Amino acid sequence: MSLTLPGKPSELTTPDLVGVPKSLIEHVTEPALTTETKEASISSFETPNGSQALISIESAEASHTYKFPFEAPSGSVSQLEEDGSVSFINDEGEYVGGITKPWAYDANGQQLETSFSLSNGVLTQTVEFDESTAFPVVADPNTVNRPGFCAVFY
Predict the structure, then answer these.
(1) What is the pTM of this model?
(2) CA-to-CA distance for 152 and 69, rounded, in angstroms?
(3) How many CA atoms does the CB half-sphere of 122 hold within 13 Å?
(4) pLDDT (tens digit, 9 = 90+) per residue, 122-143?
């Protein structure tokens, strides 16, 4: 599968992860790619089973939605699961990859409401925050797939 990061390429940066539980951080490397939008930076990291993109939202004026165009593995369909995750299912009904349940945390460690939606090959993550939220807010779409099935683009 491929997941395209929104924004324009920028200097590689690792987001400030204050407030994010360590158990949610799956990467052990430096970012492979960082992009920037007007409101946020998104850094992508290789993980043992796919990739992890970390959205760093800097202020209450930032967008609440982040769009990631994607391509499902060949011969598969995408479906939004009850827990909020996304599964890619092949013609035989087998799971061939997906995107784990979304999460978002503010700088004080407060978990924020966040969700995915799917439309025409675009994964949209919506993050709920307001002016009383401690920034930065960090959110993550995390892909999981069989070996050799993942790429991240900008």
Answers:
(1) 0.91
(2) 10
(3) 9
(4) 999 999 999 999 999 999 999 9
